[in-house]
Amino acid sequence: MKDLGLGKTKIEEDVMEEIKHFMDVLRSHKSQPIDVKEPLSPSMSNNICALVFGKRFEYDDPSRQFLDKNIDEIFEYFTQTSLDVVFPWINYIPFVSKFLESDKPRIAFNNYKKFFQ
């Protein structure tokens, strides 16, 4: 951000604070194997929340967990639907085409809409 002439900003401070929280979570596992998706997902969403709402949420906060759950569902949908772009014939497999017609993305987007209203 300094390269853009902005100097040290509130955003930079928020990101650094979130990195500290993320590192604390990693340290708490005391060198044991960990699935980094679990702490990384809330850490990334907290950076977005800091930009949008001006604050971070604790990892166990229901609002943040709600947002993360819907983000995961949206990304899961887009990851799955990209298969039919690469492999158009996949739509002719009955169980796959039924799976791609899922209402989950629409529900997730509607959940976001309600949350932000």
TrEMBL record:
GO terms for molecular function: heme binding; iron ion binding; oxidoreductase activity, acting on paired donors, with incorporation or reduction of molecular oxygen, reduced flavin or flavoprotein as one donor, and incorporation of one atom of oxygen. Signal peptide: none annotated. It holds the Pfam family p450. Keywords: Iron, Metal-binding, Monooxygenase, Oxidoreductase. One of its GO terms (cellular component) is cytoplasm. GO terms for biological process: organic acid metabolic process; xenobiotic metabolic process. The keyword Oxidoreductase applies. Belongs to the cytochrome P450 family. PANTHER family: CYTOCHROME P450 508A4-RELATED, CYTOCHROME P450 FAMILY. This is Uncharacterized protein.
